[in-house]
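Backbone-to-sequence.
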């Protein structure tokens, strides 16, 4: 009788594990292949060889790149090189990516930047917020951008128990932001277990010097975050659920869900086209290729444009798609004055004139 019970329990456990594995493959879109959608007038950006996970562009055409992200278990083309922040002036005829100097006292050796966001104060001071993973920990760094010196002055490091696994950030004040946690846990093994079991414990945090709180939760893997041009709505990408959530922002900074847009791809960072309000999405058509790197079968890239997301029938258009022969693992796409920048999790970056 005892052996029969043990075998029954083992069978149930194996069935559950098999079901979870199959579900994970579906969430990763492990069988999906992408058909190429090419753009003319594109070239790879010189100086970006090991990822440009996030990109943010100021209204004057200065683009910031977060480069060199490293995560446990994730492929890297430059595992021993610290990350950095690069800048490109898109008003120039032939713009180049230049690394910004960071003020003394900041630990450059452990700099591991992830999501970024800019904020322009009423006195035109530009702040750059950077999600940082020094030694795979989680902080948010706030810098002041000094344009004349092409440098960043480090102002503050933020750590908080409600920021255990920060992915992306959208600044809404000089020391105020919303941030996504892509996992509930910070421990690598528990992160893997959480993803495997599909617990839906990830969330969005609002941070200010006076208050830190959870403002949205229940996501599979909350990832990219951005804000509508009128500042009324927050957009959140749920990567493994293949969804973009539209959340209404209230005066007390709380959020309530308004709608969910379902897609057929793993959605990463979200950018706003300043000329139209459209959302540009850096996507991963096949997550298994992204996380289990094979140079002979590299991860593909995909960029979507979403028009009228608040309407009953938003328009979703594929702007760019590649099987990895040119660009591997697209994570972000940003546009300025008909110039498109596409960044990747750990590969190159693409510049296109539309």
């Amino acid at each position: 009788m005892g052996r029969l019970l043990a075998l029954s329990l083992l069978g149930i456990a194996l069935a559950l594990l098999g079901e979870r594995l199959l579900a994970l493959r579906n969430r990763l879109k492990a069988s999906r292949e992408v058909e190429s959608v090419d753009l003319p007038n594109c070239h790879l950006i010189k100086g970006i060889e090991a990822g440009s996970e996030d990109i943010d562009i100021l209204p004057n055409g200065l683009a910031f790149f977060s480069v060199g992200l490293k995560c446990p278990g994730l492929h890297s083309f430059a595992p021993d090189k610290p990350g950095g922040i690069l800048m490109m002036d898109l008003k120039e005829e032939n713009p180049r990516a230049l690394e910004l100097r960071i003020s003394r006292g900041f630990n450059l050796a452990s700099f591991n930047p992830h999501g970024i966001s800019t904020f322009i104060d009423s006195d035109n001071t530009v702040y750059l917020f950077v999600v940082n993973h020094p030694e795979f920990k989680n902080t948010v760094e706030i810098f002041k951008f000094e344009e004349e010196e092409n440098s960043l002055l480090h102002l503050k490091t933020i750590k908080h128990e409600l920021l255990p696994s920060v992915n992306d950030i959208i600044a809404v004040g000089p020391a105020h932001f919303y941030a996504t946690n892509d996992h509930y846990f910070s421990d690598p093994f528990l992160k893997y277990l959480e993803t495997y079991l599909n617990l839906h414990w990830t969330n969005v945090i609002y941070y200010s010097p006076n208050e830190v709180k959870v403002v949205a939760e229940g996501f599979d893997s909350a990832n990219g975050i951005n804000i509508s041009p009128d500042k009324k709505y927050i957009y959140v990408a749920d990567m493994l659920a293949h969804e973009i959530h539209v959340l209404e922002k209230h005066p007390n900074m709380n959020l309530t869900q308004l709608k969910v847009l379902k897609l057929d791809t793993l959605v990463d960072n979200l950018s706003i086209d300043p000329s139209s309000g459209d959302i540009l999405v850096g996507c991963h058509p096949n997550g298994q290729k992204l996380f289990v790197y094979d140079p002979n079968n590299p991860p593909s890239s995909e960029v979507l444009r979403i028009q009228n997301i608040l309407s009953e029938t938003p328009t979703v258009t594929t702007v760019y798609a590649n099987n990895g022969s040119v660009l591997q693992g697209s994570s972000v796409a940003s546009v300025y004055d008909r110039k498109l920048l596409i960044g990747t999790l750990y590969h190159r970056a693409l510049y296109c004139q539309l």
